Every structure is written in C-alpha cells, then in structure tokens.
Amino acid sequence: MPLIRSGGVTALATTATRRSRHLPDLPTMQEFLPGFAADWTYAICSRAGVEPAILRRIEDGARQAISSTAVTETMARLGFEPAFEAGDSFDQAVDADIRRWNAILARDRAERRVPPISP
C-alpha cells in the first residue's frame, strides 16, 4: 500500500470481489473478467480435537486483537481490511474456496492435458 500511495508502483486492479475502501478508485479484476475473484484469507488454525475451552480462548484473543485500534490501523496502512469470522460460516467459506480453486485447477489441467498430481 505505501508503494501504491507514493507512486512507486501503479496498481491496475485488486483481486478481491469488491473494491478496497483504502483505494476506492482502484477497480476489481471482476470488473474486467466477470467471475474472477481471489480474496485473501488469513486464519488461526489448530489441530483436530483441541478442547472447546481452549478454542474459545484462542477465538476470544483473536477477536480482541482484530478489534483493537492499534491492529486495525496498522493493517489499514498495509491495505488490509480485517474482519473476524469463526465457526461454521468460516468453515463454509473455506470449503467454497477449495471447491472453486479445485474446479479452476481441473479445468486448467484439462486444457493443458496435464495429469492430476497424485498423493
């Protein structure tokens, strides 16, 4: 973000599904290529089977951090738009992303006639 604002780099578009509130005049790729979207997700994850009380403590800490002025201002300077999401809605968003990218990769492999990667 600092390089864009200083003129050191020219931004052509954002890959997010909506325009950035930090650069509202910057179009999205979707405006040029309908259906294109590559939103970023950062998450705190744990192994399966962690006790619910521990998960709640981690979730509460993350929610508190993301709502602090210092964190949101720092993230805003870097161009991030922090949001907190947890539980089923987060799981559904990740699952939808996995399905979308798997479909894109499958289509690309078919077009290039590249065999899928085996485990």
User: How many helical elements?
Assistant: 4
Listing every helix as H and every strand as E from the N terminus to the C terminus, the arrangement reads HHHH
Radius of gyration: 18 Å
Beta-strand percent range: under 5%
Largest β-sheet summary: none
Descriptive report:
46% of the residues lie in helices and 0% in strands. It is built from four helices and no strands. The model has no long low-confidence stretch (mean pLDDT 84). 1% of the residues are buried.
What labels would you give this structure?
single chain, 119 residues, mainly alpha, 4 helices, 0% strand
Question: Could you provide a short overview of the structure?
Answer:
With 119 residues, the protein is an all-alpha fold. It has helices spanning 2-6, 52-66, 69-77, 87-112.
Give me the secondary-structure topology:
Layout: H1 2-6, H2 52-66, H3 69-77, H4 87-112
